[in-house]
């Protein structure tokens, strides 16, 4: 079935167009992004259960963007009365005028930006899904997650708790200007199993997830993830501390995705180019990795949690080749940054929700696969580690440093996995070194869409990343 | 649809229990590149969140379900949502617990500041910084919000309280001989404290200068590490988390009331207090999210656990009276002046990529962007490498200064020393 577009958004479209027409008399550019996204989040553990209709991306509200004399301004509201669009326009003008008065009295200069183009375009996209979150009977889901949690508790000697979660969101967004009328509707879902173990006062956890741009039907896949989550949580209880140093490593697809995201995801967000905050600006056309490094970014690169039709500025979704055979080709860009840099937007202008500003943000960030097998990669290592599971990462686009917190490292000695496990692992280093040392990549690849991404320490959005197994050298601690 | 109408529907619904949180926010935002305005934004929103409770027929289980009801929802839509919540709550089989009830507490009467005046304070402070050719501001983002919260519950709790909530994110550049670096800072507060913001950013300029002269961090193996910036809050959050009702009930923390949390430790015996009010905190409130009154409460006294705090369900399971979800914290118990803690060799990290302390496992980690290696004679700025360790081992050896400093909703020792952490070098 097709995910039906929001009736609420249809009901306010005409009034929003009137609002835009009214503001258009005062400003050089006017757009409206309206969102009506519904969903659910169910969490079940041994000690508590909860059901909520809120996920990271559920929202209902409108953001109006205007431009005058090179300055872009926005007004976010969630009590729009379609019977009174002219009153809303007056309120918006009045509120922004109060800000302009403050800016004038503080002698604030403007970073002038050209006016966005407004070529005629109409899009109405309803993507496929088997089930809709708003029509899902949660009784079965609560029972399913309870059974998963119960089963996990029987699988490990030291199991303390097992938390499971299932979230599904039906995104509906409408982007309007004087000449543009874009509507999209799609569903994405994600689920997790977190197994928690305890031994002699030491607590550890193993984490497995599923995600995709489909409906609640995806949660059945969690069945296969329980054993892995429990076995990792049990293994970590006996993990050793790694001797800090530089090692040959193989990154699992999840860790590969983390590197993609932190290294040349954030590193080529071009709003950072505008602020001169990213070293990548100086390296377009230059080598930043080995020949084995090719990386793509875009909502069209994979089918996962952020595979939309158009972004929050009405730019069509894209598929950008950021790095090709080790050479940095281009970055990703929102519409305003593109105007400032004289480049084209890539469909990466995203907001946390209607209340937040647009920044250049990632969607699917993925390393291309190669021709090697994991077995050949392991057998090529004299001493090193197979790195599995991501905890978190932090970008440093200005200096190309990287911090990846990795769940565990499996020791490899003389081409074989020994069974010794080391945790936690902090992988740090200089991005071009890390990518420059990539010598092998596996044939397969996986994409992961659980979790979120912040810009600095805020502005959380959904992203997905991944790739194949990669062999490189890294500093571990 | 407004909160009043929603309450009327809830009262007629026959549901076992419910809570309505109605938060109205007026927000002003300003985004600067250098000191030129990139964008200005206004936010005028209302979020009405409804939580309903369903008690099973045998009284054994109490379930809850929640949703947001948009101000634009029709009465029919709100009615259907609340009916759906009742059904969803009945699916949630949590062991029965008691809901918060009125206790006579009243909200503090707070007068909200003028949003334009607070914004002006931020803008003018940023423009008045002593920038030079070698250290200046790359960009900054100012967020000023005035929030008013109206809470109503089926048990008779009702109050309205207001608080300003501000945040500024600043990127500082420093440059020398063609090399440029950046430092990232973000500060949360109620309104704008001009003097504190200015002082912090002037200190950051100095860090920027030093960052340009760093050498790679040597592989120190084990070293004493000093935390003297906001990152130290992550260390103290570990203690607060381990005393949360949720972690205690779920047996993820074994700390027992009346017992020392780190028996045999040779460090300072900390005192941790949840407090209702801290100067200029954006978290000053009289009631928590579930309507429980917030009171000054000793959680840890001289290293001995005194109180667990948390949400209603886990607090009820643990039989806790007077529990609430804390939002402001005070830490004391340092026995030495800062100067004494700084004697001998140590590494002082003032800039991490992202410093983390995992409350569940106790793992500590962070990549070093700027640190000062005090070798007993010289002070050497270093960068690269990482700090790691475990709070399970380090908590008992923690040393803190007598002097204290305020970071948003945490008042903590100005200097915190964790002995014998692992320092990976960048060489």
Strand-helix topology:
The complex is a heterodimer of chains A (477) and B (427).
Chain A: H1 7-24, E1 29-44, E2 49-52, E3 59-68, E4 71-77, H2 85-105, E5 109-110, E6 121-126, H3 138-153, E7 159-176, E8 180-199, E9 202-212, H4 226-236, E10 245-251, H5 253-264, H6 271-274, E11 295-297, E12 320-324, E13 327-328, H7 335-341, E14 349-350, E15 359-360, E16 364-367, H8 374-379, E17 383-394, E18 401-413, E19 416-422, E20 425-430, H9 431-436, E21 440-441, E22 446-448, E23 452-455, E24 458-462, E25 464-467, E26 470-476
Helix pairs in contact in A: 1-2
Chain B: H1 3-11, E1 17-33, E2 36-55, E3 62-69, H2 75-91, H3 115-127, E4 135-153, E5 158-176, E6 179-189, H4 194-211, E7 215-216, E8 221-227, H5 232-242, H6 245-249, E9 271-275, E10 297-301, E11 304-305, H7 312-317, E12 328-332, H8 338-341, E13 346-352, E14 356-357, E15 363-374, E16 379-383, E17 386-390, H9 391-394, E18 399-400, E19 404-407, E20 410-413, E21 416-424
Parallel strand pairs in B: 7-16, 8-13, 12-20
Antiparallel strand pairs in B: 1-2, 1-4, 2-3, 4-5, 5-6, 8-21, 9-10, 9-12, 10-11, 13-15, 14-15, 15-16, 15-17, 17-21, 18-21, 19-20
């Amino acid at each position: 079935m097709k995910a039906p577009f929001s009736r609420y958004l249809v009901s306010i479209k005409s009034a929003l167009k009137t609002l835009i027409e009214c503001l258009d008399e005062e400003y050089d550019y006017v757009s409206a992004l309206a969102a009506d996204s519904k969903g659910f989040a169910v969490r079940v553990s041994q000690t508590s259960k909860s059901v909520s209709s809120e996920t990271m991306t559920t929202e209902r509200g409108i953001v109006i963007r205007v431009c005058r004399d090179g300055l872009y301004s926005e007004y976010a509201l969630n009590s729009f009365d379609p019977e009174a669009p002219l009153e809303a326009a007056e309120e918006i003008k009045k509120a922004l005028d109060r800000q302009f008065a403050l800016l004038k009295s503080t002698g604030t200069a403007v970073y002038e930006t050209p006016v966005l183009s407004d070529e005629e375009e109409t899009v109405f996209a309803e993507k496929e899904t088997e089930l809709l979150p708003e029509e899902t009977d949660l009784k079965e889901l609560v029972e399913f997650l309870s059974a998963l949690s119960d089963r996990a508790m029987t699988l490990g000697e030291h199991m303390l708790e097992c938390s499971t979660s299932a979230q599904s969101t039906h995104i509906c967004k409408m982007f309007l200007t004087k000449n543009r009328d874009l509507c999209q509707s799609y569903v994405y879902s994600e689920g997790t199993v977190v197994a928690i173990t305890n031994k002699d006062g030491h607590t550890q956890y193993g984490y497995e997830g599923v995600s995709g741009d489909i409906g609640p039907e995806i949660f059945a896949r969690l069945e296969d993830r329980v054993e892995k989550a429990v076995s990792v949580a049990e293994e970590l209880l006996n993990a050793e501390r790694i001797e800090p140093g530089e090692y040959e490593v193989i990154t699992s697809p999840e860790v590969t995705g983390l590197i993609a995201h932190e290294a040349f995801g954030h590193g080529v967000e071009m709003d950072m180019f505008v602020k001169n905050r990213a070293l990548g600006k100086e390296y377009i056309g230059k080598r930043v990795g080995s020949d084995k490094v090719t990386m793509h970014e875009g909502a069209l690169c994979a089918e996962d949690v952020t595979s939309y039709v158009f972004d929050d500025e009405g730019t069509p979704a894209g598929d950008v080749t950021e790095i090709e055979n080790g050479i940095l080709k281009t970055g990703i860009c929102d519409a305003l940054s593109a105007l400032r840099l004289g480049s084209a937007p890539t469909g990466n202008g995203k907001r946390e929700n209607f209340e937040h500003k647009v920044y250049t943000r990632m969607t699917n960030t993925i390393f291309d696969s190669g021709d090697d097998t994991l077995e050949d990669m392991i057998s090529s290592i004299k001493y090193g580690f197979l790195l599995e599971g991501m905890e978190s990462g932090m970008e440093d686009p200005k200096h190309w440093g990287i911090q990846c917190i990795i769940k565990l490292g499996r020791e490899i000695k003389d081409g074989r996995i020994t069974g010794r496990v080391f945790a936690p692992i902090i992988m740090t280093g200089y991005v071009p070194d890390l990518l420059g040392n990539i010598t092998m990549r596996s044939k397969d690849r996986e994409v992961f869409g659980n979790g979120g991404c912040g810009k600095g320490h805020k502005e959380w959005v959904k992203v997905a990343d991944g790739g194949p197994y990669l062999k490189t050298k890294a500093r571990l601690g | 649809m407004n909160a009043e109408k929603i309450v009327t529907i809830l009262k007629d619904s026959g549901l076992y229990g419910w809570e309505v949180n109605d938060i109205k926010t007026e927000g002003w935002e300003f985004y600067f590149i250098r000191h030129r305005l990139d964008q200005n934004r206004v936010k005028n929103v209302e979020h009405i969140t409804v939580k309903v409770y369903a008690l099973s027929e045998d009284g054994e289980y109490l379930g809850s379900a929640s949703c947001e009801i948009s101000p634009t929802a029709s009465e029919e839509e709100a009615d259907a949502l609340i009916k759906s919540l009742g059904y969803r709550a009945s699916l949630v089989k949590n062991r029965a617990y008691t809901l918060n009830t009125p206790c006579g507490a009243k909200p503090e009467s707070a007068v909200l500041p003028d949003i334009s005046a607070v914004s002006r304070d931020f803008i003018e402070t940023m423009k008045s910084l002593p920038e030079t050719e070698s250290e200046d501001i790359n960009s900054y983002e100012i967020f000023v919000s005035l929030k008013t919260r109206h809470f109503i519950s089926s048990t008779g709790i009702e109050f309205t309280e207001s608080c300003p909530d501000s945040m500024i994110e600043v990127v500082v550049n420093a440059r020398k001989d063609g090399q440029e670096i950046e430092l990232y800072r973000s500060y949360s507060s109620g309104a704008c404290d001009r003097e504190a913001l200015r002082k912090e950013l002037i200190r950051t300029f100095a860090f920027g200068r030093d960052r340009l002269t760093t050498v790679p961090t040597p592989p120190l193996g084990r070293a004493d590490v000093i935390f003297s910036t906001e990152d130290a809050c992550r260390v103290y959050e570990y203690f607060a988390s381990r005393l949360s009702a949720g972690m205690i009930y779920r047996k993820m923390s074994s700390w027992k009331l009346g017992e020392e949390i780190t028996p045999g430790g040779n460090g300072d015996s900390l005192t941790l207090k949840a407090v209702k009010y801290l100067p200029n905190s954006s978290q000053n409130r009289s009631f928590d999210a579930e309507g429980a009154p917030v009171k000054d409460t000793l959680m840890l006294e001289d290293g001995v656990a005194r109180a667990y705090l948390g949400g209603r369900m886990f607090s009820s399971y643990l039989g806790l009276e007077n529990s609430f979800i804390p939002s402001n914290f005070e830490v004391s118990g340092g026995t030495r002046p800062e100067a004494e803690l700084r004697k001998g060799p140590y590494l002082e990290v003032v800039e991490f990529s992202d410093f983390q302390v995992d409350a569940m496992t106790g793992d500590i980690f962070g990549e070093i962007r700027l640190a000062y290696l005090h070798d007993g004679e010289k002070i050497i700025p270093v960068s690269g490498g990482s700090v790691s360790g475990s709070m399970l081992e380090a908590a008992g050896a923690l040393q803190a200064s007598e002097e204290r400093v305020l970071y948003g909703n945490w008042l903590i020792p100005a200097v915190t020393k964790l002995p014998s952490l692992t320092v990976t070098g960048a060489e």
